[in-house]
Amino acid sequence: MTRLFRIGPVVAACLLLGACAQLLDLNKYDEVEGASGKPSSGGKGGHAGAGGSAGHAGAIAAGGGGKPAGGAGGTNALGGAAGESAAGAGGIEEAGTGGRSTAGAGGVGGCSSTIEITVQGAPTADDQLDSGYYSYEYNVDPQLGSAAGDYLWLDFYTGGEYNGEDTGSFELGTGDDANYASCSRCVWLGVDLGDSGIAKTYFYAKSGRLDIAADSDQLNGYPDVHVSDVLLSEITLDSDTHVSAEVPGGRCLHLTSAAVVISKVPDGWNCPGYAYGTDDGCDCGCGIADPDCVSAQVGVCDFCDDEGSCGLSDCSNITLTDNAKCSTASQGWTCDPYHYGDGEACDCGCGVVDYDCVGVDALYCNVCNDPNACTASRTGTCTDIDASDNSKCL
Question: Is the CB of residue 198 less than 8 Å from the CB of residue 6?
């Protein structure tokens, strides 16, 4: 399956023109500004200071800093990483000066600096199942770059080698989920996502926990997904292979927790979410009608005592003509509740005319021998039924 990601329609054009490195900002700092910051040529003023990445940290954390003013920073490939950390606090003027003797010493877990982020507002869903995935998007705070949007994405891929439909608990940054090219569950973030669909910088989850509830249906727009203690590290993305590579000494973002919960269960449903409209049978007494029920009669019920249901296990207190509700008073039906309006036969002698009977006369009767019908104490046949009211006996 082809791996898709947000680099916009410009990708197709630049591939044809052979100019992707110049057009894609996600490669900008490694292939353009940071070119002189590689080990083979490090130590060249501000560009060398961060291998390009430190200069970008200034752009994100301090708004444009860390490029020419980092001249004092780089004596090796990581020379500007500490300068990057300083850029987050100090801005343009201090972007590179911190990288002289303390280069690479800042941050934790290989991060030159770590910014705490939170998600804002409600998540939005993006159905891309035709392309093999479903995505959920959050705005994040604080603003990490310019006025353009910063977004956290949770993508779930399915089909072939992908198993994004699975539920359970997952450790982020491990196994196939450790790289964007192979992840079924992808937690990542784009900074300064412009109208072109290209972010200036990407971050990918290197650790954390992802919990997906058993009744989550994330590939159909109804996720119950929670992430916690997520550390995202700065990455580059290969526009051809989609392989993500962590930027050495790059910046990190930390997200304490976030939830993506979109319920397909309408307000008023009192039973478990997994029982609503999941083709698992007609669940009754749940407050509102289950889409799995072919009619509103009690006779079509399969389950009446789900957790949260008002019904009894034998469905005897389910309202005859509204199987979403229960009745505390006698409804007059004496026969098996599963026989009322079950769509199979006209049951007679049951105290109430069966919904399945096309008329009230005895000639419409199909079944007259229910153990609780009035015929039970007589012949047990339809000859006992009142000719003009098939709910009664003669």
Answer: yes
